Amino acid sequence: MASELTRRIQQNSQYQQLLKTRDTLGWFLTILVFLAYYGFILVIAFDKSLFAAPIADGMTTTWGIPAGFGVILLTIIVVAIYVNKANRDFDRTVKEILEKEVKS
Q1: What is the per-residue pLDDT for 2?
Q2: 8 Å CB contact between 102 and 5
């Protein structure tokens, strides 16, 4: 019975759309974080002076500090976006699919 239910769910068009939406969002957010992290590392590797420059004359804090915090903050925001979307949309859709397929 469970295998029959699994097969029906996998063939459900709403489930297929859910997978497509989830995968697209996942890959988009993954690439965004990848570009941020590797962009940060590439700047350090090829233009150290950019992040080594002080924010203002006489300050010891360089542009690398807010850039690093920005990368970390971006990661937190990306996780929040995915969790929000999963909790709000993906979970609701899965519940609807299960209710529909279990009844039939």
Answers
A1: 64
A2: yes
What is the spatial distance between Cα 30 and Cα 33, in angstroms, rounded to a whole number? 5
Tell me the two tokens of residue 19: 């997978």
Residue type at 98 in one-letter notation: L
CB count within 10 Å of CB 15 equals 19
∠ CA 97-100-104, rounded to 5°: 135
Separation of alpha carbons 61 and 86, rounded Å: 38
Q: Which residues pair with 62 in a beta bridge?
A: 54
Residue with tokens 């350090």: 44
How far, in Å, CA of 71 to CA of 7, rounded?
A: 41
The residue written with tokens 């939406």 in the block is: 21
Mean pLDDT by runs of 10 across the 104 residues of the chain is: 81 94 97 97 95 93 96 98 96 92 79
The partner residues of 54 in beta bridges, in order of sequence, read 62
| C-beta separation of 81 from 29 below 8 A | yes
Residue type, 86: A
